[in-house]
């Protein structure tokens, strides 16, 4: 799951522009590159999952309505938790799983369930599963950051860390699981944690699968640490200050009264690293 503004995004955006315009290719059959379009208040949904029926509980219409309902719920939560309210409608593509893999998997070194590249793209399913709901929440954070500060280059630990934290919060998970904690503690003991600098790449897209899993977890852990040590409101202030000042350092001093480097060190110490 990626939110990136690096050259991968250009590849994807270009690829997307070369596709037949979804708006002109509205069909009813699914999984043929012809997208069904459906609008809600804040989103335009295009979906191409191969569903047998269009009506009924297992039909495409119900599926689309459910996805839009989840997205609108996520929009409200984003406002509550991060004070973000993208004004322009966000385009969301729900791809047939096979087509998604064929078209996009080569762009990442690890299996991706979705990404943001000017629009939200997710690998679809035949039902709205908890996994799909998480991915939608995750990618919405990237979309909202992009809408709020289009030319701001965020480090991946912040972009991905907040996206991971938000998707976890969305399903009621308020902190790292015991298993996640023990993975981080073990890496800390082995000296295998990334430095904040390592995690400041624009995206983790080029990381090998194990390294990417660790980078996402460590980034989520950092945001979780900030929230538990200093409160959700400060995270909100931090993010707003980043947008206003365009400086992570200044934002960190403003929201946390500490240098970013010191916050990073305190987090590593909390994991048992020296
Ligand atoms: Zn992401």
Briefly note the structural class of the backbone. Answer: alpha/beta
Write the element-wise H/E pattern from the N-terminal end onward. EHEEHEHEEHHHHHHH
Please give the radius of gyration in angstroms: 19 Å
Shape: globular
N-to-C span: 30 Å
Enumerate the strands of the largest sheet in spatial order, edge to edge or round the barrel. 1-5-6-4-3-2
Q: Work out the helicity level.
A: 40-55%
| Main sheet specs | 6 strands, mixed
Q: Which stretches are low in confidence, meaning pLDDT under 50 for 5 or more residues running? A: 1-29
Number of strands: 6
Name the bound molecules. zinc ion
Please state the average pLDDT score. 86
Number of helices: 10
Strand content: 5-15%
Describe this structure in words.
The structure is a single chain. The chain has a six-stranded mixed β-sheet. It has 274 residues and is α/β, with parallel strands linked by helices. The protein has helices spanning 7-18, 60-82, 97-104, 130-148, 156-170, 178-189, 209-230, 232-245, 248-256, 260-270; strands spanning 2-3, 36-39, 43-47, 90-95, 114-116, 120-123. It is built from ten helices and six strands. A hairpin with a 3-residue loop joins strand 5 and strand 6 (120-123). Bound molecules: zinc ion. Zinc ion binds at residues 1-3, 138, 142, 160, 163.
Write the layout of secondary structure elements.
Blueprint: E1 2-3, H1 7-18, E2 36-39, E3 43-47, H2 60-82, E4 90-95, H3 97-104, E5 114-116, E6 120-123, H4 130-148, H5 156-170, H6 178-189, H7 209-230, H8 232-245, H9 248-256, H10 260-270
Parallel strand pairs: 1-5, 3-4, 4-6
Antiparallel strand pairs: 2-3, 5-6
Helix pairs in contact: 2-4, 4-5, 5-7, 7-8, 7-10, 8-9
The structure holds zinc ion (ZN).
């Amino acid at each position: 799951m990626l939110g990136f503004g690096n050259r991968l995004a250009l590849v994807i955006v270009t690829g997307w522009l070369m596709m037949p315009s979804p708006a002109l290719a509205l069909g009813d059959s699914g999984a043929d590159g012809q997208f069904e379009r459906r609008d809600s208040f804040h989103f335009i949904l295009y979906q191409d999952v191969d569903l047998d029926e269009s009506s009924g509980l297992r039909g495409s219409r119900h599926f689309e309505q459910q996805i839009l309902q989840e997205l609108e719920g996520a929009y409200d939560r984003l406002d509550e938790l991060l004070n973000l309210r993208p004004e322009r409608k966000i385009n969301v593509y729900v791809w047939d799983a096979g087509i998604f893999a064929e078209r996009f998997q080569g762009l990442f070194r690890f299996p991706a369930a979705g990404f943001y590249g000017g629009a939200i793209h997710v690998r679809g399913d035949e039902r709205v599963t908890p996994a799909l709901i998480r991915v939608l929440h995750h990618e919405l954070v990237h979309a909202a950051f992009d809408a709020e500060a289009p030319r701001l280059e965020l480090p991946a630990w912040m972009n991905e860390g907040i996206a991971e934290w938000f998707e976890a919060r969305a399903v009621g998970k308020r902190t790292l699981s015991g298993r996640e904690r023990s993975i981080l503690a073990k890496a800390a003991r082995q000296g295998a944690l990334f430095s904040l600098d390592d995690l400041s790449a624009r995206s983790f897209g080029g990381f090998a699968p194990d390294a990417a899993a660790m980078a996402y977890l460590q980034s989520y852990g950092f945001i979780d640490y900030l929230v538990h040590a200093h409160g959700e409101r400060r995270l909100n202030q931090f993010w707003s200050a980043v947008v206003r000042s365009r400086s992570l350092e200044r934002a960190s001093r403003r929201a946390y009264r500490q240098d970013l480097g010191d916050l990073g060190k305190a987090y590593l110490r909390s994991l048992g690293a020296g």
